[in-house]
Amino acid sequence: MPTAHNESSGDAEAVVQAGTVHGGINLFGRAAPPSPPPRQLPLDATRFVNRQQTLTRLDAALPADDDATAASGHPMAVAAIAGAPGVGKTALAVHWAHRVRRWFADGDLYVDMRGYGPGPALDVGQALDTFLRALHVPAEQIPTDTEGRAALYRSVLTGKRVLVVVDNVSTVSQVRPLLPATPTCMAIITSRSRLSGLVAREGASRMTLDVLSPEEAITLLRDSIGGDRVSAEPQAAADLARRCAYLPLALRIIGERIASTPYATLAEFVADLALVDHQLDALTVDDDELSDVRAVFSWSYQALPGDTARFFRLLGLHAGSDISVAAAAAIAGVSIPRARNLLDQLTAAHLVQNPARDRYLFHDLLRAYALERAQAEETAEQQRLARRRGYAWYLWMAEEGRKVILPYSHAIALPPAGPDVPLTPASTVAEAMAWFERERLNLLDTIRQADELGDHDIAWQLPVVSDGFFELKSYWADWRDIHLTGLRAARTAASRLGEAANLRCLGDAYWRMEQRETALDCYRRGVTAARDVGDHWVEGFSLRGQGLIHEELGHTEEALNLYGQAREVFRHHGITRGEGMSLLSLGNCHRARGHLDTAITHYQQAVAILDGINDQWSVAWASYPLGLAYQQTGQHDEALKQHQLALKLFRRFDDRRCEGLTLAALGDTFDATGQHDEAQRCWQQAFQILDPLGDPHAGAVRSLIAQASRDNAGGE
To answer: What are phi and psi of 539, to 5 degrees?
Structure first.
């Protein structure tokens, strides 16, 4: 694994480990207390219709409450709920999961695999990454490949009692890696497919959820519109239930519409719905997933005020599966307060859901219908402009976040956001990181959609301004993939700058994934492209990136040459931080060759430059090897001074790994000066930090502690 070259200035609320971030990082705060078990279930469904038979079967599939009994049974408990779209599979699964939460003391996990709908399904590797993070696995310990993630996931769940809800699955392969392999855990899956492979191979209990019975549908209408109205017109109520195909989704929508019109009769609603149904007959085609509900959707949609209806259909153009109020405002070209009001109207009509504060989403059938309406009622240009407003919102929000988190990172010229794009940039690093985390999947979907629909400028710019987040949070595969898309889009757009920027990012990503030859190729091509357009930041850091790889490979002379070239580029063009980092790298090479006086000179120059721009985490990164060089030359007082400075700074930023490494070096220096008790104390602290992180240096520190103990025992 490459040696990390983290750089930062500020105070960290959470530890991040990065391999190649080239901008100073602002992170402030204190180490977080131990996290509670994950509790990811969505809100329980309101007005849930009693599906008692299925609930009873789910109860029977529960793992035993006693761990010993569970361990003697089937290796895992899996329940699969199949059924048509809109039949209430998710509502049932979530409702039951809430009922049995007490069985699962170690938490519950939830993911929507997005197996059906206009956008792509969620990759199972992404789902595993999300689950592992929720289970408190450090990001840098999560493998980059799906198989490795699945193995680690199963290991983490061993001996735990966790409920896993995997929603909206389209294929067995999309869910199989997410199944726990421990008898005290349980997975519940929803799908339109029968998932026969899970029944045959994993022994899943399959439950096919049918539409509601006429009686259950009437009960749901009673809950929505009141028992008196249903009792007064039983035949009309039965006709409404039939026209809703006895689907809970359609019944809730129609019930909300009727409830908001207390003076109309149910018979009038039946007549209106019949008219809409007749008008839509010509649209009926085979395999049309909207055929059973289009009349209900259309009837409710036509009742919306004009601006609300347009807002609804424009939301169908959004690339992601959920949306914030501000992003919705941007797509529609309205203010944030107006967007919130319109979203509240759609929520009240059951046309969108509001699962969390300021977050909204469609049922996949409603999303498909909204997109259908947009394509029918908006011109191609109107659709393009709405999407461009949405793209601009993501682009500029990511750019503002980049500037807060990575003030020294690569800045590129962006198209103006426009007056109809309401930006609410983060003011703190914590806010910026939280925004990126909330919008991560939407960023991926936006990059994909922009590339597919020909907005290639967005498709290469958005990866560049989002780059640092994906590295800092160790989303390695996503990090690589966004830049592969960005590079392809830049070439299509004939943007040499876009090629240069994405090639440099790809070099970093491939290096972190230990694909060194591929990384070198990206860096080399990045240098050429950067020189073509005069982007000296990309040129310098691409040269330095090559140097880091050659240094790892033991090609010290080549590394020195590349670091020297990078330093000259940075110095000539006034890129101060780049010059400091190049000096640090030069110092490392000279120290490796035993040229300690030259190394110390380079480190001292790096410290002075980085301190001059107040990049204190990078000062720590230079002080640490400076202390090592002093230690190697026998200048122990200077070594102690530099390591104590580095330790103070690393602790300030809650960089636990670097704190552990510095403590180990301090122990070595204390030991060399005869302060053996101090050395033992530092080594013990270093081991307590490095071992849980899986750091390879932990073994060497353990050996030092053991040797010191033997020496003490021998002395006695």
So the answer is: -60, -50
Paired strand residues for 356: 359
Nearest CA to 626 among 640, 612, 610? 640
**Where do runs of H (alpha helix) occur along 453-555?**
456-472, 476-492, 496-512, 516-533, 536-552
3-state helix, strand, coil in the chain (%, to 5): 65, 5, 30
Q: Give the three-class secondary structure for 100.
A: coil
pLDDT recorded at residue 28: 47
pLDDT in tens, 198-247: 877 878 888 888 888 899 899 989 988 888 899 999 999 999 889 888 88
143-147 average pLDDT score: 91
Q: Residue 119: which region, alpha, beta or left (left: phi > 0; alpha: psi -120 to 50)?
A: beta
Burial 617-643 (b: 16+ CB within 10 A, else e): bbbbbbbbbbbbbbbeeebbebbbebb
| Residue 602 exposed, middle or buried by CB count within 10 Å (0-12, 13-18, 19+) | buried
Looking at the predicted structure, is the pLDDT value of residue 282 above 80? Answer: no
Which residues touch 447 (CB under 8 Å, ≥6 apart)? 458, 459, 462, 463, 482, 485, 486
Instruction: Report the candidate in 259, 236, 253 with the shortest Cα–Cα distance to residue 300.
Output: 253
Average pLDDT over residues 448-467: 97
Q: How many CA atoms lie within 13 A of 323 on its CB side?
A: 31
What does the alpha-carbon distance between residue 117 and residue 110 come to, in Å, rounded to a whole number?
19
Instruction: State the average pLDDT for the chain.
Output: 88
DSSP reduced 3-state for 165:
strand
Sign of CA dihedral 238, 243, 246, 247: negative
Does the pLDDT at position 69 exceed 80? Answer: no
Cβ atoms of residues 330 and 422 within 8 Å: yes
Q: What's the token pair of residue 567?
A: 């330093």
Residue count of the chain, please give it.
716
* Integer angstrom CA distances of residue 264 from 20, 238, 284: 66, 17, 29
Neighbours of 601 (CB within 10 A): 16
What is the Cα–Cα distance from 239 to 342, expressed in whole angstroms? 31
In degrees, to the nearest 5, what angle opens at C-alpha 595 toward C-alphas 589 and 601? 80
Q: Is 65 helix (H, G, I), strand (E, B) or coil?
A: coil
Quote the pTM value: 0.85
Q: Sorting pLDDT into bands at 50, 70 and 90, what band is 1?
A: very low
Contact assessment for residue 104 and residue 161, using Cβ atoms and an 8 Å cutoff: yes
Tell me the pLDDT tens digit for each residue of 577-621: 999 999 999 999 999 999 999 999 999 999 999 999 888 878 888
| Residue 285 clears pLDDT 70, i.e. is over it | no
Asked if 464 and 508 count as a contact pair (C-beta separation under 8 A), the reply is no
User: What percent of the chain shows pLDDT beyond 70?
Assistant: 91
Dump pLDDT digits (tens) for 684-706.
Answer: 999 998 888 777 888 998 999 88
CA angle (173 as vertex; 514, 62 as ends), nearest 5: 115
Query: How far is it, in rounded angstroms, from Cα 129 to Cα 137?
Result: 9
411-420's contacts with Cβ under 8 Å and 24+ in sequence apart are: 411/537, 412/461, 412/464, 412/465, 412/497, 412/501, 414/461, 414/465, 415/457, 416/392, 417/392, 417/393, 418/389, 418/392, 420/330, 420/333, 420/334, 420/389
Give which of 42, 285, 339, 6 is closest to 140, Cα–Cα.
6
The C-alpha atoms of residue 400 and residue 425 are separated, in whole angstroms, by: 6
In angstroms, the first-to-last Cα distance of the chain is 42
- Rounded Cα distance, 436 and 502, in Å: 19
- Name 31's Cβ contacts closer than 8 Å, sequence gap at least 6: 15, 654, 656
Relative to beta strand 186-191, strand 205-209 is unpaired
Choose among 663, 669, 674: nearest CA to 697.
663
Alpha-carbon span 126 to 482, nearest angstrom: 14
